[in-house]
Amino acid sequence: MSEQVSRRDFLKLAGLGAATTAVLTGCGPASRYVVREPYQQMPEYNLVGQSTYYATTCRECAAGCGLVVRTYQGRAIKVEGNPNHPLNLGKTCARGQATLHGLYNPDRVTDPIMKNARGGFAGTNINWDDAVQAVADALKNNQPNEIAFLIGTASDHVFDLLTDLAKTTGVNAPIRFGAMNMLESRATLSKAAENLFGQAGMPWFDVANAQTVFSFGANFLETWLSPLSYTRGFANFRKATTTKLRGQMVQFEARMSATGAKADEWVSLRPGTEALVALAIGRLVAEKKGIAVPRIFSGVEPLEVAAQAGVKLEALEHLAERFASTNSVAIPGGPALGQSNGLAVAEAVLALNALVNNFGKEGGVYLSALAPNQSEYHRPASAQEMQAFVERMKSGGIKVLFVHGVNPVFETPNSLGFKEALSNVGQVISFAVFPDETALEADYVLPDHHGLEGWGYQRVGTGVSLPVLSGAQPVVSPYYNTRSTVDVFIAAAKLAGGKFANALPYADEVEFLQNKISALRGEAGGSFSAIDDETFMATFQQFGGWWKNTNALLAPDSASVLNQSIKTQVKDAEFAGEGEFFFVPFVSPTLGEAGANKPWLQELPDPTTTVMWTTWIEINPETAHHLHVENDEVVKVISEAGEIEVPVYIYPAIRPDTVAIPFGQGHTAYGRYAENRGVNPFDLLGKHFNEAGDLAFAGMKVRIEKTGKTQPVSRNESRMGVYGEDLGEEH
Amino acid sequence: MLKKIFNWLMQPIGLIAVGIVFLSVFSAAVYGISLTQQTPPQPIEFPHQTHVQFGIQCLYCHPGAAKGPAAGIPSQAKCWACHNQIEKTGTSELLAPLKNAVLSGESIQWVPVAIVPDFVQFNHRAHVAAGKNCEDCHGDMSKVNIAINPQVMNMGWCLNCHIETAGEDEEKLIKLTDCGTCHY
Amino acid sequence: MTTLADLKISEVKLAAEEGGKWGMVIDQDICTGCQACVAACAMENNIPFVGEEDSGYGRAMHWIRIERFWQGEYPEVKMTNQQPMMCQQCGSAPCEPVCPAFATVHSQAEELNLQVYNRCVGTRYCANNCPYQVRTFNWRDYERPEPLPNQFNPDVTVRRRGVMEKCTFCIQRIHQANHKAKAEGRELMDGEFTTACAQACPSNAITFGRVDKKDTQVYQMMHHGQSHGKKHLEELGTLPNITYLNGGGA
User: Fold this and answer.
1) Per-residue pLDDT tens over the stretch A101-137
2) What's the pLDDT score for residue C179?
3) Which of C63, C99, C157 to mutate to test the interface with B (most CBs of B within 10 A)?
4) How far off is chain A from B83, nearest CA to CA, in Å?
5) Out of C114, C155, C182, whose CB is closest to B179?
6) Which in A387, B12, B23, B78 has the greatest CB count within 10 A?
7) At what angle do helices B76-88 and B96-104 cross, to 10 degrees?
8) Up-side HSE of residue A351: CA atoms within 13 Å toward CB?
9) Confidence (pLDDT) at A29
10) 3-state SS of chain B: helix, strand, coil percent to 5?
11) Do C202 and A655 touch (CB under 8 A)?
12) Total of domains in chain C
């Protein structure tokens, strides 16, 4: 055997030789073996080796900022703000930047799937003809009032298409919903406007021109309503110029938010006393000004309020002086509205503005402009309306549910019972781009294009004085076998025939959009005009939208506000549950409701705690000391609705009787970067609403138990020293 | 054990085996290295020569050179614009791969010849703007079919030319020999 | 007091007088810490994400980070103004002399601190010597599963394991703008381009531009007004090129 070199040995030797070759040539130009594929047909407006830029609209939240996306050889490389877009003037937030990690996410839904069973993604990849047939059958074979559509918060072209469908065929009107609009308490804001001004709408606060801002929990520098617009306003408010001093900001909240961190004065109130404090300040302001205390403020006694809220009377007096003496504006928002008396908070804080007479004035309160093709304010569904919808599903009243642009199984608290109710819905068809929790529970997943691959438009709801319709167009061709949901509905309506075909008489999505947009062509005072519809549509896409050039903010009527009593009596806020801690869920400023599957958003440090990649619970150092818990120790948080286990982050800027958990993580599906990471604080929320129908998400009490486990929390701050021991603090 | 192997290796047959091993490793290595120095095979035996002789400018097919970092490879549609006429004459077998690619919609997999490693940010435009002609780096295309690299494109070669170009101009020299001009 | 800068050779003095070529002014008073700059930087510069475990070890690759410090205790607790921290592009950089491979060198043409990836052998001396702690090291070949690499910026090298990296002031954009201006036969204008972070910043807290010309916005902001401007750790003689403003606050 060993006397000769066998063939096998020779092969081994040859292998060794090849390995040596590989090692030696490793030093050579390995990329020589790269191949380059030219285009079959060079796309129009593309030049070899040069970037092409396309204007579109960001779909990461409902604000509707304009983007310009740099593409290179058919790939989207970088998102930049559209400098001409009136809402964001060329700026972007972190979530807008990371939208490319959604487009090129390794866990997208690649093909239409007919699933074997709910609760998993196993199924058959079907072709789009069969998919469209399935949608057509669902439309045709059910009673119209048993067909429902659930879509995202944004008022966009999908909403318009489905509204058109509902108008003539009798199917249910589409329900717009998202966790963000629930946590922003949009229903409460518009209800308060309606109660006080007699006109529903989204209030808009002109921070830029104010001299003093009192924010009652509003997290307007993070995710609230239109963060880029409010951040720009804040920057202008802060800068001293020759004509104005540097603006001063006071934030009232139990847990210091990233917005509160920018305040000059942070007032930590006992949760639930925001309305009383606002009214007490109003009363003190009136007294300072020497005017008769208006009726709306007359029912409170500042001394009592101070004791209840846990602040000193002198502090309230000093704040009242501050508010009375300058060009002030008061903003209600965030957890303050998510109390059982949230509507009273909104009304009390808006009334403060009436006292300083800033309605419809620079630096004051307006109602947001309506978008160009919008006749009245239409708000997304409140949590209570979702609850009613869930009841309908439970009772078997919904046979077919179409879901697009929202992930309700994740974005509603378990206590609402959305997931369970789905089992009473005969057919669930999801148009999800990513394999999210709702798609998991669907029978068909018919993936829409990613926002950067699709056409569309979106109304800008608030944040800008002009009426703006933001335009969206594909910046790259679709990467996977996806199809626009609008195209699917148009095709399915044709197949279903009859009234459905009549309701959507369009050849495709682009024709539908052109039909909708061309109405604007005749309007005067627009950002551009065109000689015909095709040119108008092309220009609309090129500029990233169409807007009017005149300020269309509505000035609310302030005459009667101060003479009202608050319609919903200021009851003490009620807190559900037995625990000793007030519970504040807040939106993760970096993740929002749908950012968890974008790896770079996961790796962005939270602005206040610098935590990355997971969920944490914020506990005051003193409380942590009493509970004998330390950083990274996992505790069990128990409410009447459920319990979760979450590691501790000892947070110096939170009331000792309050704990806070960010919302954004805790996915059970949604791709590799989101799945089984962190926890969802919604699991702790009970089924309680405020008077306007918004969820009383900040109206819970929780209990904390030690578990004996630890989970190291990745934080960015460890490398720069905690509490300023290291860099930067020289004094 | 080791001793046993050593003893076996000291026999004549063992020495021959060692020799064979050495030779085969050596020759495989030489062959491997020579592979890296050869012009790689291209999907189409593209005759640059012919095209240049017809008077087609470099920039007609590689317009990116004047505008940006990459000169670019023309799209198949561009080739076919002329060649669908020529193909009808049936005079060239070399056109078959192009025709197949166009008809089947598949991409032609060209192998780049003149390349720099990916940590070098080379920009054609700056060189064209500085008055360099294509043939200064890529050689005379009127003499070759498939493009060949007339020189080893390493850093010494780049720097030689940069230094030469700068001449006595010190500011230019600083700019042209700065690491950050090419590496970022 | 004699600072280090006084002891340096004449070249550095020259640089000090000139004050570099590119610079940045950051207004901490209006920075909201929103992380848009961090995300924009990552997207522009092909920065890898490292995952939960490695970021827990402090290996996250942020070229720019937002620092914040706490003052006082509850209820008188206050967060100091957010402080975006990135490579200060020092005129006399402590990272440069310690590199045994000459991988981190000073660009005389653009007056920036360069990191030459193909020279770097990963000693990490530079990171240890950086008083601002802004250099990040590729501890691994961080995975970016397909099709994420489609998003890579072709103008920036994709770094591999064992290489140090840091903020470059978006040198690829500097070059691109230079090339464009040159091809069009004109001077580069102020504000013609900006870095990814400044471009994204929702509150416009970051301003980038030439500091060696008096008519630029950055120069005006540095030398104008109540002179709240401050350069970090200037007393070390690093001659940083980023000026921090603190508005009227903090």
Assistant:
1) 999 999 999 999 999 999 999 999 999 999 999 999 9
2) 86
3) C157
4) 14
5) C114
6) A387
7) 120
8) 34
9) 43
10) 60, 0, 40
11) no
12) 1
C33 interfaces chain A, CB cutoff of 8 Å: yes
In a mutagenesis test of the C interface, which of A714, A715, A722 is the best target, namely the one with the most C β-carbons within 10 Å? Answer: A714
Amino acid sitting at position B109: Q
Q: How confident is the model at residue B39 (pLDDT cuts 50, 70, 90)?
A: low
Please check whether residue C250 lies inside any domain of the structure.
Answer: no
Condensed to tens digits (0 to 9), the pLDDT of residues C204-248 reads 999 999 988 888 889 888 887 655 688 999 899 999 999 999 875
Q: Are strands A203-205 and A444-445 parallel, antiparallel or unpaired?
A: unpaired
Among C164, C167, C171, the strongest candidate for a mutation testing the B interface, having the largest count of B CBs within 10 A, is C171
Verify whether the Cβ–Cβ distance B184 to C156 is below 8 Å: yes
CATH domain A184-367 topology: Dimethylsulfoxide Reductase; domain 2 (3.40.228)
Q: Residue B114: what pLDDT?
A: 85
Per-domain residue ranges for chain B? 2-37
Chain A neighbors of B32, CB-CB under 8 A: 17-18, 20-22, 24-25
Query: In the prediction, which pLDDT does A569 show?
Result: 62
β-strand C242-245 against C104-106: which pairing, if any? unpaired
Distance from CA of C207 to the nearest CA of B (A): 22
Structural contact between residues A368 and A201, judged by C-beta atoms closer than 8 angstroms: yes
**Is residue B19 less than 8 Å (CB to CB) from chain A?**
no
Inspect the interface and report whether the beta carbons of C29 and A76 lie closer than 8 Å. no
Give C35's pLDDT tier (boundaries 50, 70, 90): very high
Report the pLDDT value the prediction gives residue C191, as an integer from 0 to 100: 86
Whole-number Å distance between alpha carbons of A474 and A470 = 14
Q: Return the number of other C-beta atoms located less than 10 Å from residue A82's C-beta.
A: 27
Tell me, which fold does domain A113-180+374-547 have in CATH? Rossmann fold (3.40.50)
What per-residue confidence (pLDDT) applies to C2? 44
Cα separation of B3 and A331, whole Å?
88
Top CATH class, A581-724: mainly beta
Residues of chain A with pLDDT under 70: 1-33, 566-570, 718-731
Residues A468 and A460: beta-carbon distance below 8 Å: yes
Query: What pLDDT sits at residue C230?
Result: 87
Q: Looking at beta carbons, which residues of chain B come within 8 Å of A32? A: 36, 40, 111-112, 115
Q: Which residues in chain C are closer than 8 Å to B175, comparing Cβ atoms?
A: 109
Residue B70 one-letter amino acid: A
Query: CB distance A34–B112 less than 8 Å?
Result: yes
- Distance between CA A201 and CA C196 in Å, rounded? 36
Average of pLDDT values for B119-127?
90
Cα separation, C84 vs A723, in Å, equals 16
The residue ranges of every structural domain in chain A are 53-103, 113-180+374-547, 184-367, 581-724
Domain encompassing residue C175: 4-245
* Fold of domain A53-103: N-terminal domain of TfIIb (2.20.25)
Mean pLDDT for the stretch of residues B78-87: 85
Across C32-54, average pLDDT: 95
* pLDDT in the model for residue A10: 43
d(CA A700, CA A379): 26
Residue C123 lies in a domain: yes
What mean pLDDT, rounded, does chain C reach? Answer: 87
Nearest CA in chain C to B183: C116
Nearest CB to A38 within list B33, B69, B107: B107
Contact B68 A49 (CB under 8 A): yes
Tell me the torsion sign for CA atoms A402, A406, A408, A409: positive
Query: What are the pLDDT digits (tens) for A608-647?
Result: 999 999 999 999 999 999 999 999 999 999 999 999 999 9
Label residue B52 exposed, middle or buried (CB < 10 Å: 0-12, 13-18, 19+).
middle
